[in-house]
Amino acid sequence: MHPLDNVIWQALGSSQAHLGLRNGNAQKFVREVSLLGAFTEPSVENYGDLATLLGPEERVGLFLDSPPEPPNGWNIVITLPLLQMVCENCGSLQSNENFPIVPLGEADVPDMLALTKLTKPGPFAKRTREMGDYFGIRLSGELVAMAGERLRLPGYTEVSAVCTHPDHLGHGYATALISLVMGRIHTRGEKAFLHSRADNERAIALYEKLGFRKRWLGTYAILSH
Predict the structure, then answer these.
(1) How far apart are CA 153 and CA 71, in angstroms?
(2) The CATH number of the domain where 126 resides is what?
(3) Within 10 A of 189 (CB to CB), how many other CB atoms are there?
(4) Does one domain contain both 117 and 201?
(5) How far apart are CA 89 and CA 81, in angstroms?
(6) Which helix (H) or strand (E) holds 8?
(7) Residues 13-63 pLDDT 10s
(8) Rounded CA gap, 63 and 86, in Å?
(9) At 105, is the secondary structure helix, strand, or coil?
(10) Residue where one domain finishes, among candidates 83, 103, 126
(11) Which domain holds residue 134?
């Protein structure tokens, strides 16, 4: 198995085990960290193991090889085509722009939640920032762009939460932030990877320009039980 196969499971079983819960062949992040979860394979038994980890009205996000076919008792909230990309031979990147990039911490969480709610780069919760390092660009105090790290496992770190306020697109903010995050990953001797909606052609073109290559096409599904 490649380390990026069943990557949520791999992360929860290694570098991010302290942020997760496990029952049998199912794992998930603590609710306040992320809705992402995983199992070894989508069997009836493993769906049962996963169900015991969910609180009332809690949802779980899964990366699957094919559209979900859960057993009775589960509801499919949404499914999307998911593309995984990896930068196998990327070195440290330097942005040509000198933007006022700042690290984001606990005090920035309300602004991070507001920006991700507006732009919808993927699931982002109150404690998602604990999964890795996050950086942003502020203009007149307003957080207008951000990017950071999400899934982490030995040798690999995911670039995630790449988003720019709609009123500030086209200035190169995303490229600068991704370059910074990728450079830090490279400096640690790791490889960068990411996930995108498979139909987000604009984002995929940017990622390919930065050196990412398509690795896996699957399904992102949000389910409730």
Answers:
(1) 30
(2) 3.40.630.30
(3) 7
(4) yes
(5) 26
(6) helix 7-12
(7) 999 999 999 999 999 999 999 999 999 999 999 999 999 999 999 999 999
(8) 16
(9) coil
(10) 83
(11) 85-215
CA distance 61 to 218: 13
- The dihedral through the CA atoms of 90, 209, 198, 172 has a sign that is positive
Structure pTM? 0.93
Task: Based on the fold, state whether residues 92 and 167 are members of the same structural domain.
Answer: yes
> What angle is formed at CA 119 by the lines to CA 210 and CA 190, rounded to 5 degrees?
35
Q: Are 136 and 145 in contact (CB under 8 A)?
A: yes
What is the bridge-based pairing of β-strands 156-164 and 142-153? Answer: antiparallel
**51 phi and psi, to 5 degrees?**
-60, -35
Q: How many domains does one find in the chain? A: 2
Task: Give the tokens for residue 181.
Answer: 């995050």
Is the domain of 106 the same as that of 153? yes
pLDDT tens figures, 80-119: 999 999 998 776 566 656 788 999 999 999 999 999 999 9
CB 94 within 8 A of CB 210: no
Do residues 19 and 37 touch, judged by C-beta distance below 8 A? Answer: no
Q: Of 83, 112, 133, which residue is a domain's last? A: 83
For residue 73, count other CB atoms closer than 10 A to its CB: 10
- What pLDDT digit, counting tens, does each position of 120-155 carry? 998 999 999 999 999 999 999 999 999 999 999 999
Same domain, 90 and 78: no
Residue 165 C-beta-side C-alpha neighbours within 13 Å: 15
| Three-class DSSP category at 145 | strand
Asked if 125 and 205 sit in the same domain, the reply is yes
